[in-house]
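I had to read the description of the data format several times before I understood it. For illustration, here is how one protein appears when written out as sequence plus structure tokens:
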Amino acid sequence: MKEDEIIQKWKAGLSKHKLAEIYRREFNRQIRIIRSSIRHRHDGKFITQYESLAHIENVLYKYLREKSEKISKKC
């Protein structure tokens, strides 16, 4: 899930915990696909709910910080 998708879903009303759950599922699904071949069976690492929440929070805080900087520059 890209940063834009995360921000859109958050604006639509999803909580950061629900977004983290969705992000974790999609990320781990992609890792399973990569690991399905014999050659790449040890590649990638599954992430936990805590790690996905950390990623989601970083994306949201970055967005909010940029938004507040734009507002403060207008004043």
In short: The radius of gyration is 16 Å.
